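Budget justification, computational time. The allocation requested in the original proposal was used primarily to generate structure tokens for proteins on the priority list. As evidence of use, we reproduce two of the resulting records. The first is shown immediately below.
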Amino acid sequence: MFEDKTRVLLVVPQAVLDRARVFAGEATSRLKRPVSLQMVLRSLIDEGLKRSGDRAVFANIEAQVQAVRQIRSRVGRVGVEKARPRRAAK
């Protein structure tokens, strides 16, 4: 089934992971077969990519882009402040 598989490190918020676990539990109950978290995440990614023109998908991507920009700008400012030499108190 997965001849061309690749390993990926995926970092997601705990709330997203919890929702995916709930989904896996619901799928396990409905299908009466074990459904792993990995199966759920693979399916969600695959289905999300099929919805290439969906506004909700782009809105989610935009929110993530903005969050990353804010984090990086805060880290950049802190890094600049640490790099500046401090003046000795007189």
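The second record produced under the same allocation is shown here.
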Amino acid sequence: MIIVITLPYFIEREAERIVQRLAHVDLIHLRKPESTSDEMERLIRDIPAEYHSRLVLHDHHHLAVKYGLYGVHLNSRNPIPPQGWKGSISRSCHSLEEIKEWKDRCNYLSLSPIYNSISKQGYNSAFNREQIEKAVAEGIIDNKVLALGGVTFDKVEEVLSLGFGGAMILGDAWK
């Protein structure tokens, strides 16, 4: 699975750019931590409805229910899914302990940072190859865990060969 995460701020012709990226990836995570519900709803409405089943929200989860989106992404701002949510649930993790804690409660998880971040200066890799291989051998990292942090399109094959179920890409997708 390959997922692109939006930039944290709105950009010109964003809906059009999201549709273009969906030609090459499985899902788009709409992550706008400073956005209002109205701003996020405007973006969702600007994306043709045929693509809504491939969108995941990090904030304003009620809009995922309203528009029938693919999923909601849990985080410190939104730690539980909306009431009655039946779609996909994902979550960001920054340690192997978090992966173990959340794996049974989510459809998929991200683990970061795997490489030095492209979009966040000074956000360097927290895991070496040996730690990743050990976590794969122990069944902690598997097809439900996606690599995030410094992951570029040209590193997707590498993260798959390491044992991750896919990749989440932010910086490389928007340059």
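A brief technical remark on that second record: The chain has a mean pLDDT of 94.
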